[in-house]
Amino acid sequence: MSKPELYIDFASAANAHRRLYGGGRGQAIAKAMGLKTYGLPLTIIDATAGLGQDAFVLACLGCNITLIERSAVIASLLQDAMLRAAAVAELKPIIDLMHLINADAKRILTSLPPAAFPDVVYLDPMFPLRNKSALVKQEIRLLKEIVGDDPDADELLMAARQVALRRVVVKRPRIAPYLNNILPHSSQIGKANRFDIYMPL
What we know:
By secondary structure, the protein is an alpha/beta fold.
């Protein structure tokens, strides 16, 4: 049986390579989260889970992470991927740190009791695709076709800053404008992406 066009596999060779040789806490996303500053255990809400790749990396680094995905289709793909990965002995401890919620992130964040506030809220909202579609991975194009844009991304940033105990991290294309046109407190810049860091309100 062939795989569907959009398929999440946390046990893939690419994920295994990044897990073993991706740079650990030296990765840009780990630095942006403040792993070296705060240490572990660090609780994170990934409010725009998508295909879960960044959440998986953070769980590999020991973070306890809640994935919020509002698309029922994508949430189903994530749930399936997590169940398959949990059946792999070396991945089960990682998957045990990942908790999936199929819901609207803004609604979840604005209804969180203080006792459930996370250390970090992570946002990776959909960004308009570049005109040269060959430059965009097929899985990202398919994801965008399913979930569409994130018109409430600006509001989500504000909601995230109300509940994050330590910081909010926003992933953006390297040359993209700042979310909600708000200058971050700092940025961790990679080759293709930028992680903007905002302090809580």
